[in-house]
Amino acid sequence: ALCASFAPKAHKGNQNFQNSLQPQASFKVAVLGAAGGIGQPLALLIKMSPLVSALNLYDIANVKGVAADLSHCNTPSQVQDFTGASELGNSLKGVNVVVIPAGVPRKPGMTRDDLFNINAGIVRNLVTAVADNCPDAFIHIISNPVNSTVPIAAEILKQKGVYDPKKLFGVTTLDVVRANTFVAQKKNLKLIDVDVPVVGGHAGITILPLLSKTKPSVNFTDEEIQELTVRIQNAGTEVVEAKAGAGSATLSMAYAAARFVESSLRALDGDGDVYECSYVQSDLTELPFFASRVKLGRNGVEALIPSDLQGLTEYEQKALEALKPELKASIEKGIAFAQKQT
Ligand code: NAI
């Protein structure tokens, strides 16, 4: 079944498709930006989850048709559409998990930071509505530049007096998905077994795959490490160039985001064995936000996993130090934006 493939280690959703049509839990999920390149396939994958009872789709346009279409799938969740700012609040009432892929994607030649001017304001407005309508929800930020949009979201939630750092997540799952795929290909490993932690942030050199921590344990040559690291860091650009102006990763992103939603729902449902990499408030380094593996529980981040950052190779240690100034600047840019607005 589809859900099982999101969580190959846990085997929790490992039932056949027929069984997966029986509701097993009843969480409400909202997707903001649901009519977009990521939003549509993501909504489809969430519609297939047996853990979801209500799926609220919000966008500024074109979401009615997406919802009508999806609502014909005979899976348990009820799909509702919400169009435009006047319906945003209603899309968020009683929601357990809010996923935000709203905003513009990259075109060839653009960095994620080039999206800041447009997406920063979109994330600010959407998170303001989240604070007003479902302050206890897990918030998954996909909109780029994630390195800055997550600090923006944190500031907005603080201003609203509802910030819970355990429940705010930058979605970096796609970096892990890519790392796992590329390592398995390179080393001829069974994909389902491969797990590479990816730490730091979600742009260029701030994406740091810790290849020395790959499970199962793998030996890489220095050349392989260099090649794989650079490919994982630039994988988004690979897709942007292949799409040649038509956007960035949408299908693999939807897959990765759906995996992160499913993990969050399993954690909310009381599963005690849920781990994902995510960009969160952190004290693992001197930076206030940092992506690492985290243990998820009913209340969000239950623990950061510091062991991944211990015993790094010289290559990884250097890369970690090299990424810090860029990540720090992106965090400060986000915070300054959010504070300027008040
Ligand atoms: P898209 O342009 O296809 O879709 C964006 C959707 O957001 C559109 O339907 C648009 O109407 C909607 N939207 C715009 N302003 C909105 C607002 N104020 N409220 C609600 N919805 C609004 O873009 P795509 O390809 O889906 O990408 C979305 C974002 O995800 C981009 O910022 C992109 O950079 C980011 N992304 C993040 C990744 C990650 O790993 N975290 C990977 C790939 C993309």
From TrEMBL:
<dbReference type="GO" id="GO:0005739">
    <property type="term" value="C:mitochondrion"/>
</dbReference>
<keyword id="KW-0560">Oxidoreductase</keyword>
<comment type="similarity">
    <text>Belongs to the LDH/MDH superfamily. MDH type 1 family.</text>
</comment>
<keyword id="KW-0520">NAD</keyword>
<dbReference type="GO" id="GO:0006099">
    <property type="term" value="P:tricarboxylic acid cycle"/>
</dbReference>
<keyword id="KW-0816">Tricarboxylic acid cycle</keyword>
<dbReference type="GO" id="GO:0030060">
    <property type="term" value="F:L-malate dehydrogenase (NAD+) activity"/>
</dbReference>
<feature type="domain" description="Lactate/malate dehydrogenase N-terminal">
    <location>
        <begin position="28"/>
        <end position="170"/>
    </location>
</feature>
<protein>
    <recommendedName>
        <fullName>malate dehydrogenase</fullName>
        <ecNumber>1.1.1.37</ecNumber>
    </recommendedName>
</protein>
<comment type="subunit">
    <text>Homodimer.</text>
</comment>
<dbReference type="GO" id="GO:0006108">
    <property type="term" value="P:malate metabolic process"/>
</dbReference>
<feature type="domain" description="Lactate/malate dehydrogenase C-terminal">
    <location>
        <begin position="172"/>
        <end position="337"/>
    </location>
</feature>
